[in-house]
Amino acid sequence: MEFNVSSAELLKGMMDVSKAVPVKTALPILEYFLFQLKGNTLLITASDQELTLRTEVLVDSKEDGSIAVPASQLIALFKALPDQPVTIRTTGESSFECVWSNGNSSLPFFPAADYPEIKGTAEDALSISIPAASLIDGIASTVYATADDEMRPAMNGIYFDISPESTTLVASDSHKLICFTTADVEAAESASFILHKKPAAVLRSTVSKEDGEVKVSFDSSTVVFTFGSTVMICRLVVGKYPKYRDVIPQNNSNVLRIDREQLLSTVRRVSVFANKASNHIKFDLKEGQLELTAQDLGFAIAAYEKLTCDYSGNDLTIGFKSSFLVDILANMDCETIVLKFADPRRAALIVPAEEEAASEKICGILMPIMVS
Question: Which of the chain's ends, N or C, has fewer CB atoms near its CB within 10 Å?
C-alpha cells in the first residue's frame, strides 16, 4: 500500500471521523483508523461499534491496500506538520512510514481484516432526504432536552417522527418537551426512529450547511446519514417513544407575550438567588405586569424583578425550575416569545410569536412546580 496526499487534506479527513474514536475501549483496534485505498480514493473509517464515521480523501495512489493505523499518533503528527505532500506506505508486515519533505516516521499497523465489520442498513430500509440546514437546526433545537434515564432509554434520544408532509424532531426529559417541525422533507410514507443524543450531537457538529441535502436511510436497528463525502452509521435506540402530541396543551387561555432576550436575562439574574438544589423561580402575572421572584430561605437571600409585558388572562402565580426555562429560552432564536398557561398545575406552552418565521417550527412545553 502506498499513496501521496496533501497533509492538510489527510488531517481534515481524519479530524472529520475522529469523533467516533472511543476514549476507552476493550478493543485496542478501535483506537485506530481503518485506511482503505481504492484507486485514487482513500476511505478513512473510525468506529466505537455504536457510531461509525467514514469519509473520502483524494490521493495519488501507487499501490492499493488496507490497514488500520493509530489515530491519536497520526493526528498529532499531522497537526504538527505544515501543509505539504506526504507519502504513506507500508514497509513490512506490521509497520508503515510517513515521509515528508525533510523527515519521516515509522508506526505500527493492524491488518485491516482485524477491524470490526461495519454493517449498514438492510435492503428494505426506508430513505428520506433532509436539507442540511434543517437537520442542524432541528438537532440544535432539541438535543439539550433529552434525558439521562437508564430505565427509559427511549427518552435519551431525539425522536424523528416522519410523515409525507413534514418531519418533527422531539426530545423530552419528562420535565420539558421540545418539538421542531420542518416541511422540507421527502418521505414516501410515515415512519419513525430514535437517535441517541451522543451521535445526534456528533452529527450536528459534523454536518455543514454547505452539504446541501442529507440522505437518511434507516431500518429497525440502524440509521445511515450521507452528506458530502462523509457517511455516518449508528445504532438506533430501541423502544417506543411516548405519544408526545397528547401532552401538548391546546387551550391555554392565559397568554404572555414578551421579548425573549429580556425575559431570559431577567430569569438568569433572579435565579442567582434561588435555592441551588431546586432552582425554583416564581412568576406572578397580572394584566400588563410580570413579577419574577426567587429565594433561598436557608441562606436568607432573595430577589425579585418587575417587567412590563403584554399579558391577557386571569391573575396567575406559577413556578418553574429556572434552569429548564433558561434552556428553552436560550435555544430559541425568535425576538418575541409567547407563553400560554392554563393554571398553576398544568404545563405551560412556549412558542415564538405568531409573526416570527419560526412560529410553526418549534414549540416547548415546561412542567410547573408548586410554589408557596
Answer: C
User: What span, in angstroms and rounded, lies between the C-alpha atoms of 94 and 131?
Assistant: 43
Cell of 313: 388572562
Q: What is the pLDDT of residues 134-148, one digit of tens each?
A: 999 999 999 999 999
Grid cell of 136 as nine digits = 442542524
Q: CB-based burial of residue 33 (10 Å sphere; 0-12 exposed, 13-18 middle, 19+ buried)? A: buried
The 3-state DSSP composition of the chain as helix, strand, coil percent (nearest 5) reads 25, 45, 35
Per residue in 75-93, pLDDT (tens digit) is: 999 999 999 999 999 998 8
DSSP class of residue 29 equals: G
- Asked whether the whole model's pTM tops 0.85, one would answer yes
* C-alpha distances in Å from residue 344, one per residue of 280, 320, 322: 14, 10, 15
Does residue 284 contact residue 371 with C-beta atoms inside 8 Å? no
Which three cell numbers mark 157?
434520544
